[in-house]
Amino acid sequence: MTAETATQTGTESEVPAEAAAETQPETATEAAEGTDATGVENPVAGADADADDSVEDASDDQEDDAEDDAEDEDDDADAEDEDADDEDDEDRLVEEGEIAGDYLEQLLDVLDFDGDIDLDVDGDRAIVSIDGGDDLTKLVGRKGEILDALQELTRLAVQQATGERSRLMLDIARWRADRRDRLARLGREVAERVLSSGEREALDPMTPFERKIVHDAVAGVDGVVSESEGVEPKRRVVVLPG
C-alpha cells in the first residue's frame, strides 16, 4: 500500500467522527430549551414548561379569587354602613319625637288641655299626634293655622335641644290625617274631570305637604299630569291633560 492510499483511508475514517460531532447539542442551552441540534424536542424540558404554565395559571386564578373576595367584602361593608346609617336616622327621629312629646305635654298642662300623645316615625319624619281630649279642635284652628303654629314651635323646641333643624309633623285631633284623605280624594276627582273635559284646572293654594298629597293622587290617574305654580303662600296645584 502506497503512502497516498494510506492518506486517503485516514481522511475517510475522519468523516463519520465529524458527522457524529455535528449531531450533538452545541450548547447546554439548546438541551435546556427542549430542542437538540437535530430539531427533536426534549420531553423533559417540555414537561418543565408545562409545569411552569400550570403554576402561572393557578397563581392567576388565586389572584382573581382574591379580587372577588375583596369586592364581596367591600359590598358587605357598604351594606353594613347603610344599615348603620338607617339605624342612626331612626334613632335620631325617635329622639326628636320624645323631645317633642315632653314639650307638648308641658304645653298642654299650661293651656289646661287634656290629650293622649302618640309618637311614631314615618319615612324621614318624626310624627307626634295628640288625640282623645275635649275641645282639642281649638288647638287646630279653622284652616289648621293654629296647628301649623304649634308645629313650628315644637320644631324649634326640638332644634334647641338637638342643634339640628327638625321636619317633625304634629297632628291634633286627626286634623291632618283627615285632611290627607280629603286631599287625596280631591286630587283623584279633579284628575278625572280634566281627563274628561280636556281642560286644565287649578286648585286652591296649599302648603307644600298638601300639594304633595294632591300630586301623588293625580299621578295615579293615566292621561293627566300635575304641576305647581305661583309663589308661597299662594302656590297651588294645576292639573292638565297629559
Automatic annotation (TrEMBL):
Biased composition (Polar residues): 1-12
Classification via CDD domains: KH-II_Jag, R3H_jag
Compositional bias segments (type: Low complexity): 14-41
Annotated region (Disordered), positions in chain: 1-92
Lineage top rank: taxon: Bacteria
Gene3D superfamilies, per database record: 3.30.300.20, R3H-like domain (3.30.1370.50)
Chain coiled-coil ranges: none
All copies of domain R3H, residue ranges: 177-242
InterPro entries linked: Jag_KH, KH_dom-like_a/b, KhpB, R3H_dom, R3H_dom_sf, R3H_KhpB
Biased composition (Acidic residues): 49-92
Molecular function as annotated in GO: RNA binding
Name this polypeptide is given: KH domain-containing protein
Organism annotation: Gordonia jinghuaiqii
